[in-house]
């Protein structure tokens, strides 16, 4: 049964909020863990639906795991090949990382096409190109991808046609135990890729250059975990609370942040008139009354993240003039627009990937639906700003990636509840 969120808006937010572990690291680290020959332990694991669904997928292969108080323990030592449960696979995007990790482990993988956010077309041609370069044969129909490396995997030089987080990670997962050297060029540089490389290198992998656009991997035979890996903070969750605090707060401290992961975002918030106090691992958001119009273009890291264009939108509606967002990564990532308009915002999709946000100071509650995680985050912020009651249906999309959201917003003095639909 889907959940819905009910928000009584208009209350000012204040206090502190602490950011959880990064969803996009976690969902790569978990499939990566099956490459280990030992038990693996993660700390600072966010309490999000994606984690539970990844546990279900692993359980089908006899990979048992426990998840308590932010610590996830995974035992891949009894792993066996199995048909993976397609409902769980389709509930998230990152289930496609089992393609790379199963291929690395067994030399073959069969995985149903993944689900994930409905943000327009999400091809995986670069992942497949990478697997083929490493010596695998790939066959697929509408629903399933079958990958086979009858002669084992070997290192290769791979140039990505476009910067892709998923393809970069999937190729690392497949190459880490392949024979020889893999050089991945035009790789994505997201901090979550560095987190994955750190985890694998601590187990004996030889991955160099993660965080730059050229990654060099020397294959190894064994991976053994000797310590607990602490997951980096979620820069997208952090950016969401920064925008929420700016739009509706009277002074909010957002803790457990790596500010360097948010450089482009922080610069844009400051440009829009929010006088952020950036500290070593936290950011204070002061009460802000005068917002300025800005232009935003989403680009791969270190640019302004596509995952934050929707969360920053309600704040931009407080500016004196129209702001424009150019969504370069997923031009069809606009499913928040009709829903925000139902709450009284003036947001318009001008053309492919071009979104205008005009001033609208009179927001009111309404019944809306979260089509995907970040569209949902924008609705939560708008609901907190609006007068009256906002009901957000399909809230599971939000719970896929926002750790303890009810508790965190309640602690900030927001009025938000979760109920079964
Ligand atoms: C689980 C996870 O980490 N999800 C993130 C990841 O998604 P994901 O890894 O799916 O996104 P990619 O970085 O792969 O996509 C970037 C662009 O490349 C295109 N592309 C990608 C692969 C491919 O084989 N062919 C192709 O054409 C995509 O359509 C998109 O336009 O990065 C996105 C972009 O920062 C984020 O919005 C997601 O939150
Ligand atoms: C698009 C996102 O997630 P996923 O890739 O998991 O669908 C997101 O986190 O904004």
Automatic annotation (TrEMBL):
Instruction: Give every Enolpyruvate transferase domain span.
Output: 8-408
Q: Where does UDP-N-acetyl-alpha-D-glucosamine bind?
A: 93, 122-126, 307, 329
Per its UniProt record, what Gene3D superfamilies does this chain match? Enolpyruvate transferase domain
What is the scientific name of the source organism? Weissella kandleri
Classify the source by domain of life: Bacteria
Extract the InterPro entries matched here. Enolpyruvate_Tfrase_dom (IPR001986), Enolpyruvate_Tfrase_sf (IPR036968), MurA_subfamily (IPR050068), RNA3'P_cycl/enolpyr_Trfase_a/b (IPR013792), UDP_GlcNAc_COvinyl_MurA (IPR005750)
Q: Which family does it belong to?
A: Belongs to the EPSP synthase family. MurA subfamily.
User: What does the UniProt entry say about where the protein is found?
Assistant: Cytoplasm
Question: Which molecular function GO terms apply here?
Answer: UDP-N-acetylglucosamine 1-carboxyvinyltransferase activity
**Which EC number applies?**
2.5.1.7
- The active site annotation covers 117
- Write down what this protein is called: UDP-N-acetylglucosamine 1-carboxyvinyltransferase
List GO terms (cellular component aspect): cytoplasm
A Pfam family cross-referenced in the UniProt record is EPSP_synthase
Q: Which residues bind phosphoenolpyruvate?
A: 23-24
Asked whether the keyword Cell wall biogenesis/degradation is assigned, the reply is: yes
């Amino acid at each position: 049964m889907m959940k819905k969120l009910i928000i009584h808006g208009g209350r000012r937010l204040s206090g502190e909020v602490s950011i959880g572990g990064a969803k996009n690291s976690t969902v790569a680290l978990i499939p990566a863990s099956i490459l280990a020959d030992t038990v693996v332990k993660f700390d600072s694991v966010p309490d999000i639906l994606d984690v539970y669904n990844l546990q279900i997928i692993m359980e089908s292969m006899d990979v048992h795991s426990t998840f308590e108080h932010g610590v996830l323990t995974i035992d891949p030592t009894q792993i066996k090949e199995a048909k993976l449960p397609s409902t769980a696979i389709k509930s998230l995007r990152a289930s496609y990382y089992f393609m790379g990790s199963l291929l690395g482990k067994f030399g073959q993988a069969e995985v149903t096409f993944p689900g994930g956010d409905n943000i327009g077309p999400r091809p995986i041609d670069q992942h497949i190109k990478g697997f083929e370069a490493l010596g695998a044969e790939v066959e697929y129909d509408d629903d399933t991808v079958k990958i086979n490396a009858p002669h084992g995997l070997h290192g290769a030089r791979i140039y990505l046609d476009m910067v892709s987080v998923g393809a970069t990670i999937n190729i690392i997962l497949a190459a880490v135990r392949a024979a020889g050297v893999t050089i991945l060029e035009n790789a994505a540089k997201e901090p979550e890729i560095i987190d994955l490389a750190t985890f694998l290198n601590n187990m004996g992998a030889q991955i160099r250059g993660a965080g730059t656009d050229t990654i060099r991997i020397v294959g190894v035979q064994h991976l053994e975990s000797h310590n607990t890996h602490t997951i980096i903070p979620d820069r997208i969750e952090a950016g969401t609370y920064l925008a929420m605090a700016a739009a509706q707060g009277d002074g909010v401290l957002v803790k457990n942040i790596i500010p360097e992961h948010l450089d482009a975002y922080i610069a844009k918030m400051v440009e829009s008139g929010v006088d952020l106090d950036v500290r070593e691992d936290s950011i204070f958001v002061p009460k802000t009354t005068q917002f300025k119009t800005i232009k935003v273009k989403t680009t791969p890291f270190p640019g302004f993240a596509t995952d934050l264009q929707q969360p920053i939108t309600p704040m931009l509606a407080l500016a004196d003039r129209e702001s424009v967002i150019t969504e370069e990564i997923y031009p069809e990532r606009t499913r928040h627009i009709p829903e925000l308009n139902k709450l009284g915002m003036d947001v318009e999709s001008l053309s492919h990937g071009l979104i205008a946000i005009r001033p609208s100071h009179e927001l009111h509650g309404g019944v809306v639906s979260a089509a995907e995680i970040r569209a949902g985050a924008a609705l939560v912020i708008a609901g907190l700003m609006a007068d009256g009651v906002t009901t957000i249906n399909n809230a599971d999309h939000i719970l896929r990636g926002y750790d303890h959201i009810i508790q965190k917003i309640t602690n900030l003095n927001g009025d938000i509840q979760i109920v079964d639909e």
